[in-house]
C-alpha cells in the first residue's frame, strides 16, 4: 500500500461511525460521578479548583468504559489511584526541567510498556501521563500536591461508589460475550446448510473464554448460567461441521442432505434461543418445528455411519441447549468458590496478585523488535519533545501538545494515524461548538459547570461509536472547564487547535522514525500458526491411537494454542495490509493463499476431533505414526518458513502411504480421509510460500550478509579499548548475540 492510499484509509477509518449499542444509562451514571465532584468543589472552594478536581472523576469514569472483565468499580479505583500518584509525583518534580523531563520520559515509557498487560492497562496508563502534564501548571507546594492528589483519587472513589450503589446490568458484558459465542455457532450452523465447508471465526469463543476467567470474589457471585454453556458451544461447533461435511458426514445430495439441513436449522434456532436467554436473563422459547426435528425416529432415520453418529451427538447437545434457553439462567443457586474441588473455574489473579503477572509480561516485551517496547520508546520521546517544543511557543497551555500525542499513540501504525486524524477533527468540531455556546451565554461558572457535565455524559455515550465523535464532546468539556475556571475562550481555542495539530503531527512522525511494522513479521506469525496447528492435529490423532482422558486434555490445550496463534496471525495480517510498506518475505497474495491452506488444515483436525473415540477403546493404531510425522514436519516447516526456505513433507507422505497400506486393519475411514485432506492442505501451503531457486539464493546471500554484519559488530564490541584487539572465538563457539543468549 502506498503512503497516499494509507493516509486515505486512516482518514476514512478515523471518521467512520462504528455501529454499536449505546449505553446511555452507564453514561448517565458516570456523568453523575463527574457532577458529584464538580458541584461541591464549585460551591465550597472555587471554580478553578473545581475544574482541576474534575480531572480524576472524568478520567476514572472513562476507564470504566474500556473492554475489561474485571468489575468496573475496581477499574475506577485503580484509575483514580494511578492518576493521584502521577499527580503527586509530577508536583514534586515540576520545579525544574532538569528533574521533570527525565521523570516524564520514564513515566511515559512505563505507560507504553503497560500495553504488555493489555489495551485497558495501556489506555489507563496513558491518562496518567496526561494528568502529570496538566498538574504541573498548577501552583506547587507539598500540602497542595497532597491535596490535589487526594481530590483526584476522590473522583475515582466517587465513580466506584456510584457503580456499587446503582448497578446497571450486572455481569452484562459477560452475558454478552457468552451469548455472542452461542450466536456465532448458530450462524455457523445456518451457513453450513448452504455451504458445507463454510469457515468459522473462533474469536467469539476466545472472547467468551476470556470472560469466563474470574477472581475468587467474582466466582462467589457469578450467575450459574455463565459457567456451563460456553463448553456447550465448544462441543457443538465441531459436531455441526462434521454433520454438514459431505466427505465425512451427510451425503452431498438426497434425503440424507435434507435431513442434515433440518438438523442444522434446528441447531441454529436452539442456539439463538439460548443466546437470547443468557443475554436477557429470561427464558426464551424454541420454535416448535425445531423441537420436532430433534425427535429422532430410529426406524426412519436416513443418515448412516459417521453422519448418523454426528446427528445423534448433535441432538444430545441441543437438548442441553434447550434446557439453558428454557431456564433463562434464573437459578438463584450460587456456585461454590474455586478451589481444588472446582478446578474447572478459569482463575484470574486479583489486583493485589497481579504484580508478578505484570512484571513477567513486561519482561517478555523488553526487546528491540517488540511493538510494545517500540511504542514505549516513541511515547517517551514524543511526550518530552512535545512538552519542550510547546513550552518554547508563545502559547499558553503547552501541555495540550504532548497530551494529544500520548492519547492518540498506539503500538500499531493504522490506529495511531487514524486516531490522530480523529482527534484533530473531533477537537475542531468540539471547540467550535463549545465556543459558540460560550459566546452566546457569557461568563457564568455554574452554567459552564453544568455544560461540562453534559458534555462528559455525551462523550461517554459516544465512546464506542468512534474516537472522533467522543473526542468532539471531550473537547467541549475541556473548553467549558477552562471557562468555568476563568480562562477566556479567545485564549484557549486557537491554542488548543494549534497544539492538538502539533501533538498529532509528532505522533505520526514518531512512527515513521521508529516504526514497528507487522509486514516483515508475517512469515514468523505464519510459522507460529503452522506449528500450533501441527501440534493440535497431532494431539487429535494420538487420541485415535490411544483414547484417554490425558489425550483429550492435550487436545484442548493444543486447540487453545492454535487459536491464539491464528488470532496473532490474523491481527498481524490485517495490520500489514494497512501499512505503507513493501511486502518482505510474503506478498499479500501468498499470505492469503497460505492462510486459506492453514484454515483447511485446522478444519480437518476439527472434523477429526468430532469423531474421537471414547476412552479405553482402540480405534486407529496407525494414527500414532502419522501424528509423529505430522508434528515433526510442521515444526520443521515452521522453521523453513521463518528462514524463507521451501517446506518439505517427506515424513508425512511416508506415514500416510504406510497407513494406506494397512487399510484392511484400519477401522477409521473418517480420520484417514481427513488425514488426506490435511496432506493436501499442507501441499497447498508449500505451493503458496515456495520460492524459486533464484529467490532462495538471494535470501541466503542476505542472511549471510546479516550474520557477517552481526559478527563484525560483536567483534568491535568485544575489542579492548587500549589495544583494539578483540577476544577470540574458539572452534564451535559463536558470539552470544547470535546464540540467543
What descriptive keywords fit this protein?
741 residues; 29 helices; Methane Monooxygenase Hydroxylase, Chain G, domain 1; 4 domains; disordered C terminus; membrane; mainly alpha
Helix content: over 70%
Number of helices: 29
Global geometry:
globular
Q: How much of the sequence is in beta strands?
A: under 5%
Structural class: mainly alpha
Pattern of helices and strands:
HHHHHHHHHHHHHHHHHHHHHHHHHHHHH
Q: How far apart, in Å, are the first and last alpha carbons?
A: 37 Å
Question: Sheet with the most strands?
Answer: none
Task: Kindly report the average pLDDT value.
Answer: 83
Gyration radius from CA atoms, angstroms: 30 Å
Total strand segments? 0
Regions with little confidence, pLDDT below 50 for 5+ residues: 331-343, 693-704, 713-741
Number of domains: 4
Commentary on this structure:
The protein has helices at residues 3-14, 24-44, 47-63, 72-93, 97-113, 119-135, 142-165, 172-192, 203-212, 216-221, 229-244, 255-280, 288-293, 305-327, 355-365, 371-392, 400-408, 413-441, 445-461, 467-484, 489-513, 522-545, 549-577, 588-610, 623-642, 650-661, 669-689, 693-717, 736-739. It has 741 residues and is an all-alpha fold. The longest helix is centred in the middle third of the chain and has 29 residues, at 413-441.
Give a short synopsis of this structure.
The chain has 741 residues and is an all-alpha fold. The chain has 29 helices and no strands.
